Each structure stands twice: as C-alpha cells, then as structure tokens.
Amino acid sequence: MLYRIEYHTTLEYERPVFEQAGELRLLPRSEGYQTLKNFELRLDPEARLSHYVDAYGNRVHCFNILSAHESLSIRLRAEVENHLGNPFDFIPAPPEEERRRLDRTLRENPRMLDFVLSVSDTVPALESLPEKLRWPHWDPGQNLIQAGLEAMAWISEHFTYLPGSSSVHCPLREIFEKRAGVCQDFTHLLIAIARSWGVPARYAMGYQYLAPEATEEIAPATHAWAEIYLPDRGWQGFDPSQQLLANDGYLPVAVGRDSQDAAPHRGCYKGGAAGREPRVELRVAQQQ
Question: What 8-state DSSP symbol labels residue 214?
Fold first, then answer.
C-alpha cells in the first residue's frame, strides 16, 4: 500500500531564542517491507539540513539556527510504500525449537543484546519496581507471538489509556503508580515484560494510517508501539495501546532501546524562554 504523509509541528517560545541545534527523526525507514519513495523536509526559519544514520539504522537530520527566533516550524511531505502482510501469516516453530533459534540468533548477533539487557527509567527491570504486579512470566510451552498477545491483554486489563496522564519519557515507575498512561508508556511496559523473558524487544516510533472515521476519536500524531523479535518472522510490531499486531498501516520511522533513542525531535538552544507545548498536525492518506 502507498501512503502520503503530511506532518507539521510548530514550537513557540515565550521570548526569542538563538543558537538552536536540533535533530529530527521524521523520515519513514526504508528497509525490508517498507520503501520511502520521496520526501520534502523544510524548516522555518530556514536552515541547512545534514543527515547521518544512527546506531539503530534511523536516518537523522541535523540543523543549526544561529539567529534569534520566536518559533520553529517543521514540515515533512513524504510518500512511502509498505508491503507488510498479514502478521499471522507464518507458521512458528514449536516453542522449544523457537527458543533454541532465538538463543542462536543472540549468540551470532551480540548487538541484539542491546534490546535484551538495556535498562533505563522508562524500561527498568520489572523486579526493581516497588509495587509488584504479577506481570506475565515466561511460559516455555508457549510461542512468542501468543505470549506477546497475552502480555498486551494483561496491560489492557491492569492499565487505563488516558491521554495527558504522562509526560515525554515518563519513568515506568510513575505509570505503575497511576495505573494509566499513553502509547509510549504501554510500549515501554511491553518491552520491559518481553526483556524479562530474555527476548529482544525494541521501541518503534512512527506514523499510523487511520480510517477517516477513526480520526474523529483518535487525534492524529506520531505513534509508538513495541517490536518483539520472533525467530521465524523477524521484528514483529505489537501495539499495546490498541491491542493490535502491526500491519501495513504502521509506518515505522525510528527504533531504539526506548523512547529516548527514537524521539522525533530533540535539541537545545540559548535564551531565557521555556518552550510551549508543540502543536502537531499529521495526515496519513492512502494513495490510489
């Protein structure tokens, strides 16, 4: 399926800022089942963009704006083709063989251990949390895809999706206290559960195609979901906030150990003004 993406975010400051440096992770990844066809990325004030590919394969655009300004506008137009099929269209090996294949993959690709051993405030070891819910533990008689689905169902049962209930890069400890969060928080929780099984899991940020009627209930914005490594399929997206497996309507932009690695925009500037909450507009449309 071919999609057209139009993204616009505006950052406003209470007083002029200057010498602003930033990084943008906004381009859909181009690999495997997804191909970036074309794009146009513009800033206002205008700035020269350079780019590099980070340690996780994300394309990062960098900019510097030396002159004083009171706002920053970032616009992206892109076309991307996604061929991801039915997420259930494969036959997993028996659980014991699946685990052997996973262990072999980790031995042969030690960098995959980044997505097993990494801990942070947003994805801590679950045993370190002061209040312990009985999260789903590893069942050696179960396939990974079924284990992931049950973990998502557990999150839905014990936590409430509540817009505005958490901040960017919110520590998972706070989510456990509130029993509420948004897509990035539920993603961090699912990643922590999978890693407690010794299974590679990573954070994915991107765009999601929503049917026109769905946009009336869900405000279009960048989305977050987890990707769990299945030996017979590769990285499979699990969306705990919507209780779905990722299909061709999920358009990944950046992946990493947690949300810090895959932030769409980050940077710094000089000036005594605090930035206001960014205004984000996003439109993802299917192309004929």
Answer: G
The answer to whether residue 21 is domain-embedded is yes
**Residue 232 in domain:** yes
Number of compact structural domains in the chain = 2
Q: Of 119, 222, 111, 103, nearest to 171 (Cα)?
A: 119
d(CA 184, CA 259): 7
Using the CB atoms, write b or e for 103-130: b if 16+ within 10 Å: eeebeeeeebeebbebebebbbebeebe
Spatial distance between the Cα atoms of 260 and 255, rounded to a whole number of angstroms = 10
- In this predicted model, what pLDDT tens digit does every residue of 71-81 receive, in sequence order? 999 999 999 99
The DSSP line for 63-129 is EEE-S-EEEEEEEEEEEEEE----TT-S-PPPHHHHHHHHHHHHHH-GGGGHHHH---SSS--GGGS
Interval 214-267: pLDDT, tens: 555 555 679 999 999 999 899 999 999 999 999 999 999 999 999 999 999 999
Kindly state whether residues 219 and 151 are assigned to the same domain. Answer: yes
Q: Cβ(120)–Cβ(170) under 8 Å?
A: no
Domain that holds residue 233: 95-262
As to burial, measured by CB atoms within 10 angstroms (0-12 exposed, 13-18 middle, 19+ buried), residue 41 is middle
Q: Helix (H, G, I), strand (E, B), or coil: what is residue 39?
A: strand
Do 189 and 69 share a structural domain? no
pTM, two decimals, is 0.94
CATH number of domain containing 205: 3.10.620.30
Could you give the CA distance from residue 283 to residue 222 in angstroms, rounded to a whole number? 10
* Amino acid letter, 96: E
Q: Give the distance from CA 72 to its chain's centroid.
A: 23
Identify the CATH number of the domain in which residue 7 sits: 2.60.40.2250
